[in-house]
Write a structure and sequence with these properties.
By secondary structure, the chain is mainly α. The protein contains 9 helices and 2 strands; from the N terminus they run H-H-H-H-E-E-H-H-H-H-H. The chain has a two-stranded antiparallel sheet with strand order 1-2.
Length: 179
């Protein structure tokens, strides 16, 4: 996954030198992590009797890119300054826009686009993973549901923040944010 993201970040930054800080945040978003989603996908594949497959590993890595995108967006929504002791994307990007009007808003906008770029990369990695077209076709509707439910979970959290505690809604937020 790292070589793919690095290559895509380089292509992005090659468009204009001013994009380098954004590209750096794309790479930073995938620098760490336990890669549990990819591991669960891989071992589920193997448990179903499927052979080891580099194509499946690439497809599973796309789940990590979805997670990275969701984390960037969640940090932005929650206005989190740090994640695992490091500045979040919208904080790190302030330096790139510090001399511009509304620099905080500009940094937040750039962070949103970092998340969007990661989500696009996830789709690209999945569809170019090398899995047979029939497998991709069966997975495509699930990909759509994943995106819908992930965004629904974030929306529910935003809509419910500050409201009276409600266990059912809280459980729904947890379920969908971890789609």
């Amino acid at each position: 996954m790292h070589p793919f993201v690095a290559r895509e970040a380089d292509l992005f930054a090659a468009i204009d030198p001013s994009l380098a800080p954004v590209a750096a945040q794309v790479e930073a978003a995938v620098a760490d992590g336990k890669r549990l989603r990819a591991a669960f996908c891989y071992w589920g594949w193997r448990a179903a009797g499927q052979p080891d497959s580099a194509a499946l590993v690439r497809a599973a890595a796309s789940l990590e890119l979805i997670h990275a995108a969701a984390v960037v967006h969640d940090d932005l929504i929650d206005d989190s300054a740090l994640r695992h002791g490091r500045p979040t994307a919208h904080i790190a990007l302030r330096g790139a826009v510090r001399r511009r009007p509304r620099s905080v808003a500009a940094a937040r906008s750039l962070a949103m686009l970092v998340g969007d770029l990661l989500m696009g990369m996830a789709g690209q990695l999945f569809t170019t993973s090398g899995l047979p077209a029939a497998y991709l076709g069966r997975a495509r509707p699930l990909w759509t549901v994943l995106g819908r439910e992930l965004i629904a979970g974030e929306c529910l959290e935003i809509l419910r923040t500050g409201a009276e505690p409600d266990t059912g809604t809280s459980l729904k937020v947890i379920r969908y944010k971890t789609a």
